[in-house]
Amino acid sequence: MADAHSYDVAIEWTGNLGTGTDHYRSFSRAHEIIAEGKDPIAASADPAFRGDPSRWNPEELLVATVAQCHMLWFLHLCSTAGVTVVDYEDHAHGVMTMDEHGGGGQLTEVTLRPEVTVTEQFMVDKANALHDTIDEVCFIARSVNFPIRYEPRAHTV
């Protein structure tokens, strides 16, 4: 039997402005994402859906999750392939496409733009190529139903 890992989080709505959800505009979408032993994450809906722009929204968190998993696998693969990474930054971009009725939508793509600094010039091409192998092993990439595109840039110190 394969190993299984569990992840428990709680969502606590903090947006009752006094009258609950008695009207679409009478409540805040504010909530917190909570996990034992961790600081809460202040979250809300996307501002386009009456959310608070100063808080994380689910769509941003999903894009961030894709980028995080990719980075963690990339760093692991570099360490086993002899590529020494000294800096990594990604400016990920996700696109949500609304359905024709405007009532729902879905993420339709995520583009990762990792900028990686390696210690030696001979590592640059190898580092860029490793990005293309991550979909095979990344837990999150294997779990989503939208394409993930890569625009990596590796360079030396």
From TrEMBL:
Signal peptide: none annotated. InterPro entries: KH_dom-like_a/b, OsmC/Ohr_fam, OsmC/Ohrsf, OsmC_Ohr_Peroxiredoxin. Pfam families: OsmC. This is OsmC family peroxiredoxin. It comes from Saccharopolyspora rhizosphaerae. The lineage of its organism: Bacteria, Bacillati, Actinomycetota, Actinomycetes, Pseudonocardiales.
